[in-house]
Amino acid sequence: MQRVAFVCLLVGVLVCPAFAQTAGSSDSSSQNVRDCLDGFETCNQSLLTKAQASEITDLHHDQNLWGCLTGYGDCDHSTLTAQESKEVAAAEQRQNLLACETTIGSCNMSLLNQFQSEKVAAIEKEHNLLNCETGSEACDYSLLSPPETAAVHALDREHNLLACETGQQLCDRTLLTPSEAREVASIKYQRNLLACKTGDDYCDDSLLTASDAKEVAEAKRQREALTCETEDQTCERSSSNLPQAKVE
Known about the structure:
248 residues; mainly alpha
């Protein structure tokens, strides 16, 4: 009895009175009602009362209509009324337009009218321009106008210069002008010198001049001296010029 009541609650239609009459019947009859509700092949329509058969048919019709209108689940257009078919056709056109405008889902351009097609084409052009400006692989240069192409190439050079200046792997030095190459080399030199002076692993000793090496060595001596002053366990007293710990 509780399971029948639960089914009625899920269905949300006025089927409970009819199902209540079946509560006292055999388990096979109750199972058949559930099978018919779920649309299973084991459903035996001949075992249903007229009320049950009518309500289940209405329920399945509404479920199919919901699937047609929302695009979720299966849709059987053959069971729709003329008015429902118009509503579903309008819903499908709206869903298709959304897919075309957002590139989310399957877009069928043949379902668009001229105004919609022009709108979608404009959106696609804007998306493509944005992809080109941001360096996306989806950029299609053939869709750009000459001014847009020139602007995108300028942005590409700017992005490459920034990548080189910040030490990223995307840097392509062959695209740099002589002055840009000198600027990038200077930034790399300063960055490496700082890394060596601070003991960073990114330090490349081979890029240091003789003067730089002395400066780096002095910075290392000062760091070790400070470490020993704090009596840190990592202190290295191998250098003769490091201060000795005070003996109390």
